């Protein structure tokens, strides 16, 4: 049986198959706890619902970059089978970048799901990083780019167009700081980042660039990590108003609220399963469900609801669940 993703999404389907939460940690003890949390959630939800990104850029102490990179490589190698482990290296113009890549990608590139490139300003930055990563022995390793400045926002469509780039993330705090004090501190807050016009424009540009090229737009952090109500509201707005399909977490308590905010509700999942199963029986020809016409255009939407349900651990019918099980 042909997979609905192949019928409806084509080449864009693969790019969307990422967990909705990308969890960042830069201290060894927190890295280990995060990998354990990932395993626990995978068992509870029956799917990998979060990535764990081990952080070199903000995690490595000044002067200790080499030791930190070696530790990150070792943790990636020790991760359980099936774990989704990524690494954020230093920017391409940082003295530690080449060392990060040689150590981490050279030793553990085969265990990484992607590499996060911070401070990307242009496609040329990605090309420089890709050349180093290829030389380290990982020519197929997916790259994610962190958009953190007005110039980077201006080039977001060009960066998203690169075949090697799988996702763009928005770096809120660096973006605000890049304006030289012209933007207020409130623009970095959980509420202010959704009202300040410059920040709103940047988010919309990044989301649009990703959707234009079949890539994954990943929303920025909420730094008020103990305010889970504010986090939940921000995550819901990111998912339902701004078009993001993924979001950063910086504290374990943020993971479940992000999953909840990005998940479709039970009624929507049930409706999606009903429509897609009816479409399959009709060999993807137009159908009527409850007096409403559906065809390939709406099938694509409802299949994406099912994919999002799977990525957030929602219950699916046996027929739909089979599409996410490993081939035997």
Structural descriptors:
328 residues; alpha/beta; TIM Barrel; 2 domains; eight-stranded parallel beta barrel; two-stranded antiparallel ribbon; 15 helices
Compact description:
This protein has helices at 4-8, 12-15, 28-45, 65-78, 97-108, 123-135, 150-154, 156-160, 172-177, 197-212, 228-240, 252-262, 266-281, 296-311, 318-321; strands at residues 21-25, 50-55, 85-88, 112-117, 143-147, 165-170, 216-219, 246-249, 287-289, 292-294. The chain is of the alpha/beta class and 328 residues long.
Description:
- The protein has 328 residues and is an alpha/beta fold.
- It folds into two domains: 10-262, Alpha-Beta Barrel (TIM Barrel), CATH 3.20.20.60; 266-324, no CATH class.
- Helices cover 48% and strands 14% of the residues.
- The chain has helices at 4-8, 12-15, 28-45, 65-78, 97-108, 123-135, 150-154, 156-160, 172-177, 197-212, 228-240, 252-262, 266-281, 296-311, 318-321; strands at residues 21-25, 50-55, 85-88, 112-117, 143-147, 165-170, 216-219, 246-249, 287-289, 292-294.
CATH topology of the largest domain: TIM Barrel
Q: What is the CATH-assigned architecture of the largest domain?
A: Alpha-Beta Barrel
What is the tally of helical segments?
15
What is the global morphology? globular
What's the count of strands? 10
Rg: 20 Å
Distance between the termini: 14 Å
The largest sheet, given as strand count, sense and whether it forms a barrel, is:
8 strands, parallel, barrel
Taken as a percent bin, the fraction of beta residues is 5-15%
Structural class: alpha/beta
Strand order of the largest sheet: 1-2-3-4-5-6-7-8
N-to-C order of helices and strands: HHEHEHEHEHEHHEHHEHEHHEEHH
The top-level CATH class of the largest domain is: Alpha Beta
Number of domains: 2
What's the name of the CATH homologous superfamily of the largest domain? Phosphoenolpyruvate-binding domains
- State the low-pLDDT regions, or none: none
Average per-residue pLDDT, rounded, comes to 94
Helix content: 40-55%
